[in-house]
Prior knowledge:
CATH class: Alpha Beta
Order of helices and strands: EEHEHEHEHHH
Strand content: 5-15%
Structural class: alpha/beta
Distance between the termini: 34 Å
Number of strands: 5
Number of domains: 1
Helix content: 25-40%
CATH superfamily: Protein tyrosine phosphatase superfamily
CATH topology: Protein-Tyrosine Phosphatase, Chain A
Amino acid sequence: MDIRPLTDSYAVSPQIEPEDFAAIRAAGYTTVINNRPDGEIPDELQSQAMRKAAEEAGLTFIDNPVIGGALTEGNVDAQRTAIDAAEGPVLAYCASGNRSSVVWALAHAGEIPADELIERPAQYGYQLAHLRPMLDR
């Protein structure tokens, strides 16, 4: 597990395992957002199995699959809603953490300066500069 905090209340991670949820909870996270579609992963990592493991660990689990190259406004809205509803820090994951960074940045466009929305993920190698026109709107 490789947690990469973008803020004090939101972090991203590459794919996690069901056995990681206890450590995620111990690290202070209250909500986990899955941004990975089931079609990309084996059965044991699909949303239903991950939800069961997360809830058993006492975490809220949100499924918001973001298809690479096919991000929707619905994805952005769902991410924003999940972040806003969380009762504590949020950990979002996908294959690498990039999609979870992208939906976070787009969900905060207009609230956080575009430079910060690009720079925070960049410290972990996520390149979001191509999103600047959308982040500046």
